[in-house]
Amino acid sequence: MDRSWISNPDRLSAEYEKGVGEFVTFVRGSLDVQGLTKCPCNRCMNREVHHIDSVRYHLLIYGFLKDYIHWTEHGEQSNPQVPLGSPIQDTPPCMNEQDEEMAEALRDAVGHAYDIGSSLDLLSDVRPPAEQARYDKLFEELHNPLYDDCMKFSALTFIVKLMNVKVLYKWSDRSFVALLKLLHEALPVGNRCPRTYYETRKLLCDVGLGYEHIDVCKHDCTLFYNEHKDDDVCPICGVSRYVRKKIPHKRLRYFPITPRLKRLYSSKHTARAMRWHKEQQLEEDGKLRHPADGEAWKKFDSLYPEFTGDPRSVRMGLASDGFNPFSHMSTSYSMWPVILIPYNLPPWLTMHRSNYLLSLLIPGPKSPGKDFDVFFRPLIEELKVLWDGVQSFDSYQQASFTLRASVIWTVSDFPAFAYLSGWSTQGKLACPICLEDTRYKSIRSKISYIGHRSFLERSHSWRNSKEFDGRSERRAPPRNFSTADILSQLEAIGQSIPGKATTTAKRKRLPTELNWTKKSILFELPYWSTLLLRHNLDVMHIEKNVCDNILGTLLDIEGKSKDNDKAREDLKDMGIRSELWLQPHPVKGSLKPHASYVFTKDEAKLFCDYLRAVKLPDGYASNIARCVTESNKLAGMKSHDCHVLLQKILPPVS
Question: Three-state SS for 150?
């Protein structure tokens, strides 16, 4: 049987249509009782089973697998006779294991067909021609070798690996273009290596790795977005949108999350994992293994049963923090990524970086500050749509469904907490939990928060002690503010003008506004005001700060110890611990008595020698011994090192 029609690129030709008819006739003899068989189209690649009529439709739309000339998956013997003149070749030599993995990933990205029998006119898996053409191009690049007779790389795998190396080793765009030109000249004539960085990015964007550019006002007043997308000047401060010749002052990168959420369900493996929180999560009283075990998650379930009734509804956390993209601490530049984390997955997948959804990349050079909400606008609009639901397809259950998603809390450090929540974390009322009931005391050059004993039982002996701040504690704990209380406080906030323009007058905060600087844009989400836990503090940052302060005080590290001269003067002002007050000295002016909580030189040496001798399992932590200096101090400790030191090393020492 002549099978040269398989390589015919014209799927509308009579030859190709006749060949498909011959294949369908051949396969009818090996169908199962339901009339199903494997589909050898370029989309299904013999991995999906469909009705024979659907298979014929797929072959006419997506094309026949070029390397599938021996129809062994459909009952043919392993060595059929193929005409010598047929241009069809065996499996392309460049198709190896890595290409098979990439082909599987592409099939996940494309999604699986909807099998509804022989009603071809009802098939709903047909993509728009432009979108389907992009995926056809990707499959073509995957099957084409990098150059003739190449045995290791296809064009697509070579580009992906090359881009991976560029990212890992932080190559500049100019150096990458120079390498592409050199490789194109060095490889055999007719190779498929791209010549420019633009060609490389264009191919990868077809997979869905693109993003949207949104111009930003120079002073962060507004986005040139929606009704302002065609404006040339900022509608608030009047500054020009461009530096010169259509080059904007700032540009926000926005990565839509809806396509990526749909993609989680286009693979049957991740689609199944997205149901883990409901179907496989084991509930055990008193143990918190997953956010689904927490009270905030359970209250959300009770408030929105329609949303939580479908385990495929996605619950996400929003995290943001600033970083320096140039790896030079001396360079003052702060860029802020906004990342969404889907919590439907099991813990070992939730915290894997491959499942993080980067949604916004807020430009520098300074942090957005109180204008965070300006940059949040496109994300909030998309989250509103996702709350109502969008149509998607579940490859695990092979059925369409309404995909809904929500952000149930934020995760940040303390400064970013103020940007996201709208409650200033500076000043006398800095505590975002106690709010107006924050217990504070002004001391030398700073404010101290010393009302912690009010949380103790009334009969506790420490309440009557005056050794802490010079007075006993009789006050009750601060109030627990309800959602209604917070919303009532937010209603008292005046209208604030966004932006950092010098021409914009700074609004003076009224006493009734407490420490509120704004009403967060997150309250525009229909469910946000009902959440039990809206904001979380990142333990990593807090733990490192606590560890640095403890070690700095124990080892008396200059600049890091909290036991300084001003602290001793504060003790004298409060009239407590007279043995630690500064003593007059004829030469130095004052002398700081040694405190029992500070190591002597011998104790510091003994402690550092212990740290030098500590042995930890490989990969558990870095070599903490390298952080011990010759002068018996600690320097250069990372966040995880501080965690290990506080939780595993210091407790046995004490």
Answer: coil
